[in-house]
Write a structure and sequence with these properties.
Order of helices and strands: HEEHEEHHEEHE
CATH architecture of the largest domain: Alpha-Beta Complex
CATH topology of the largest domain: Type Iii Antifreeze Protein Isoform Hplc 12
Structural class: alpha+beta
Strand content: 25-35%
Distance between the termini: 12 Å
Length: 211
């Protein structure tokens, strides 16, 4: 049975393919018009920016694109009103065609979304969306200070305690003077309370693969 992470990887690959297909359709249509005449055109919806899983769609999140071969599953521009307010259940890169299968409930069954405010030293500098991480909750707020956080991830990773696991959904810098970052994580529902109620945490990258 596919893990949630593996399933999203396949869906992301599908998104990239349909992004490429849309681009080829536009170019191919322009070239074909010179030889075969004007092909039929369709206005479809594509992501106007990178959209993380769980996003509640607004009109600014997508735009209309004129394509010649959009595919039977694409959402046409006439369906815009039905899309606004819906939630994405996968990550969608900018330029990808929006499909009905992309819309649904997030987090998926058995998972929960939690937020952590972290500071430099509490997570790898090269951390990326979609990456699996080991999560080491900190029970003491003093452990979360910037001065003590620089070695937190390394020391905890080398400890005997097994980390909780999760997947990075998004990272957003804060405006505080300590350079904080809000990291949104997808974690198994059974671990959500332990992560959410911790004073803070340290993250360690685990590479690719299912949770």
């Amino acid at each position: 049975m596919l893990s949630f992470t593996r399933a999203t990887e396949l869906l992301r690959t599908s998104s990239a393919v349909r992004y490429s297909a849309a681009g080829v359709a536009v170019v191919g249509g322009a070239m074909g018009a010179a030889v075969l005449g004007s092909p039929a055109h369709t206005h479809v919806l594509v992501a106007s920016t990178d959209l993380p899983a769980g996003s509640v769609l607004t009109a600014a999140d997508f735009k209309e694109v004129d394509v010649t071969q959009p595919g039977t599953q694409s959402l046409s521009a006439t369906q815009e009103d039905a899309v606004v307010g819906r939630q994405l259940k996968i990550e969608l890169p900018a330029g990808a065609l929006l499909l009905p299968a992309d819309l649904g409930t997030f987090p998926p069954a058995g998972y929960a979304q939690v937020s952590l405010l972290l500071h430099p030293g509490q997570f790898p500098q090269d951390l990326q969306n979609g990456q699996r991480v080991g999560i080491y909750p900190m029970s003491n707020t003093e452990d979360a200070t910037e001065a003590g956080a620089s070695s937190a991830a390394g020391s905890l990773a080398s400890s005997a305690a097994a980390p909780l696991t999760g997947e990075v959904l998004s990272m957003s810098p804060t405006s505080d003077s300590q350079g904080g970052t809000v990291v949104e994580l997808l974690v198994p529902a059974a671990q959500a309370q332990s992560v959410a109620t911790a004073a803070s945490a340290a993250l360690v990258g685990l590479g690719a693969g299912g949770m």
